[in-house]
Amino acid sequence: MALSRRSLLLGSAAALPLSLTGTLPATAAGWNLKWNPTPSSTGLRAFEGIEDDRADSHPSATHIYVSGDSYRFDMHTQDRDTSTDRQRNEVRGMRQSGNVVDIFNGQTWRITYSMYIPTSLKATTTFTHIMQTKMPGLGSAPVTVMSLRRHGSVPKIEFKVTEGNVLVGAVDLAPLQNRWIDTEVEIKAGDGSNGRLRWVVRNGGTTVIDTTKTGVDTWLGDRLRPKWGIYRSLGDTSGSLQNCHLLLRNLKAYKYE
To answer: How far apart are the first and last CA of the chain?
Structure first.
């Protein structure tokens, strides 16, 4: 016997779970992948912009390029930025399928990747940043920085929120060099005390640090974008500046929504 149209409709509806109020439940919030470049195919199109020897101080060299399954950043002692007291070979921003991926005020994002820091890339007494988040535009201070810095005589990798000079965390650098390590930066973009920052470093199956700072300022204005590479001061007094490189792979960005 054929089912009536009413029975079919009731049967379809019965397959959908309803709340006590008779409405369909809201979709649970979660992490949605928004950026996942593949170096071999995406190349440097994965980024919004490239800052490779902006002062043309070393024109015979290419400092930022794809190397196998990784992005490689080279730095030589002769390299200079447009501000001649420092060096900068970085990429900025994220592009997915040709479109810029933006981080806006109030949003929460998680950026994950693997990095290889050789012993030639050393912690310094002044700044050596290997990852930043910044508002676009000349002259704007970074919002957050991941840096290689000497704490006394001990080389560390650290993460800071720039406003208020808030140290999120720091761990010994030496055990993490000459091997692939994984890092995770989870940032809620928020002005004043509305921001939050979580930083994770993993060495193989070991979590080296997993720390969170709340009530921090992670917003300047317009939009926020990450930067990667080597950006360091020439004012180091420890003799740690030498030719070096940094490797990154498996870069991904997720938005919580």
So the answer is: 47
Residues shown for the chain = 257
3 state DSSP class of 134: strand
Predicted confidence (pLDDT) per residue in 99-128, tens digit: 999 999 999 999 999 999 999 999 999 999
E strand or H helix at 56, and its extent? none
**pLDDT cut 70: percent of the chain above it:** 89
3-state secondary structure of 106: coil
HSE-up of 251 (CA within 13 Å, CB side)? 28
Q: In 3D, which of 166, 194, 200, 168 has the Cα closest to residue 181? A: 200
User: 215-232, pLDDT tens digit by residue?
Assistant: 999 999 999 999 999 999
Residue 236: is it exposed, middle or buried by C-beta count within 10 angstroms (0-12/13-18/19+)?
middle
User: Can you read off the two tokens belonging to residue 97?
Assistant: 């399928």
Instruction: Write the CB contacts of 31 (distance below 8 Å, at least 6 apart in sequence).
Output: 110, 254, 255, 256
In terms of Cα–Cα distance, which of 61, 64, 66 is closest to 52?
A: 64
**Is 49:93 a contact under the CB 8 Å cutoff?**
yes
